[in-house]
Write a structure and sequence with these properties.
- By secondary structure, the protein is of the alpha+beta class.
- Helices cover 29% and strands 33% of the residues.
- The protein is built from 6 helices and 9 strands.
- The strands form 2 sheets. A 7-stranded mixed sheet has the order 1-4-5-9-8-7-6, sandwiched between helices. A two-stranded antiparallel sheet has the order 2-3.
- The protein is globular.
Length: 190
């Protein structure tokens, strides 16, 4: 918990990001806008509304919805979220992971602002030996030419990417958006 507080302090006070908190589920419309496959999701049988029908496998769709809700009033948006993701793995319980995902939306090229935010965060978190290499697996909502894996001690623990223009159009976001996502449990294990 103290490392979560440290992370929040680094991102908020040090780097100017604002923390958001979203529900642990989203609707089929957000899932489809991001190009995610419904079969990888746990479906909520008695959901309260259609926008809460699937457990999230990534924090990205809800963060993009947060950006879309604020994009008309702000030219620069820097937000992050800590949260659990849930993946259907064919067992009694789903695979649950603690993720940290941050997003930068701006009128110019957002990739380098997100990269600078990630590198500053890693430096403040005392992770000095890391590599950024072209992604081996491109996420469905990531631009295929602007996606890199975050590798620490030979293990891929995260990804840095620009959101695909088609996804931005689906969410009606006029700015360029770049994000980084880190498996927090793996990050703190080093």
């Amino acid at each position: 918990r103290s490392l979560e507080h440290k992370t929040r302090a680094i991102l908020s006070a040090g780097l100017g990001f604002t923390e958001v908190m979203n529900y642990s589920f989203y609707g089929k419309d957000r899932l489809e806008k991001c190009g995610l496959d419904e079969k990888d999701h746990l479906k909520v049988l008695n959901c309260l509304s259609l926008d809460q029908s699937h457990m999230r496998t990534t924090l990205t769709p809800n963060l993009l919805a947060n950006i879309a809700a604020n994009a008309r009033e702000r030219t620069l948006i820097k937000i992050f979220e800590f949260g659990h993701t849930y993946k259907e793995v064919g067992e009694f319980m789903p695979l649950e992971e603690k993720r940290l995902t941050a997003a930068v939306a701006e009128s110019g090229e957002a990739f380098y602002a997100a990269k600078g935010g990630l590198e500053s965060f890693l430096k403040a978190f005392h992770v000095n030996a890391y590599e950024l290499k072209p992604s081996t697996k491109i996420l469905p909502y990531a631009h295929p030419k602007k996606s890199v894996d975050l590798i620490v001690k030979g293990k891929t623990i995260g990804v840095l990417f620009t959101v695909h223009p088609g996804v931005l159009k689906a969410f009606d976001i006029p700015q360029d958006v770049a994000m980084f996502s880190v498996d927090f449990a793996k990050l703190i294990s080093f």
